[in-house]
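Retry 2 of 3 after timeout on previous attempt. Resubmitting structure tokens to design endpoint.
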């Protein structure tokens, strides 16, 4: 108020500007949960990308080791190689401790040898090939069943991508790693990432195992 009962024309304007501090505080309070959610999403996305890379790294390392073998693998040999996944990827050990799983079940690793035969058997050029499982071993996760493998768009326990069908044989390493997001504490969910990598034997025509499928003698 001014002397003589007159109202200060700038009083309301000054009061309004003074209140903006309270408005800003309210706005920040409303935005904070959104910002935290975005930050958490970025962290989870980064963890998911890393988990995908982990699966590739495990498959690549195990595949390179097995592809260099010359004599038939023993059960002890292949078991030790598959168990090395936890050394290649220490996050498997962390996941096992968090979930109470054993190291063998905290990651799925399947090692398979696949032989290709031309159709007809006398074909030498531009052949069509059929795929047969020589052996498949895993400590956890599905094995490829003995018998024929059909061609498909992707790899599964019973199929192979059509672009890997060719002469001789290949080694297939299927890996599935598990990722437990931070939010899983509240949501009770986990994510898995699968990778299948294919290798040519380095020194022999075909990788053999002491437990080859029927029709494939151990040599």
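Retry 2 succeeded. Sequence:
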């Amino acid at each position: 108020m001014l002397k003589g009962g007159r109202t200060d024309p700038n009083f309301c304007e000054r009061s309004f500007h003074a209140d903006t501090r309270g408005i800003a505080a309210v706005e920040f309070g409303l935005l904070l949960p959104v910002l935290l959610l975005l930050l958490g999403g970025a962290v989870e996305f980064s963890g998911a990308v890393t988990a995908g890379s982990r699966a590739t790294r495990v498959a690549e390392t195990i595949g390179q080791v097995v592809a260099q073998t010359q004599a038939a693998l023993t059960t002890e040999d292949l078991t030790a190689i598959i168990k090395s996944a936890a050394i290649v990827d220490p996050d498997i050990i962390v996941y096992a401790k968090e979930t109470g799983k054993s190291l063998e079940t905290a990651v799925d690793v399947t090692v398979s040898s696949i032989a290709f035969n031309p159709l007809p058997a006398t074909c030498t050029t531009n052949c069509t090939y059929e795929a047969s499982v020589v052996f498949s071993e895993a400590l956890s996760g599905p094995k490829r069943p003995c018998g024929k493998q059909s061609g498909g768009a992707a790899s599964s326990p019973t199929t192979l991508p059509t672009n890997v069908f060719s002469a001789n044989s290949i080694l297939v390493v299927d890996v599935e790693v598990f990722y437990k997001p931070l939010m899983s504490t509240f949501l009770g969910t986990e994510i898995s990432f699968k990778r299948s990598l294919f290798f040519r034997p380095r020194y022999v025509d075909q990788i053999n195992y002491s437990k080859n499928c029927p029709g494939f003698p151990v040599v």
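Attempt log closed. The longest helix spans residues 11-67.
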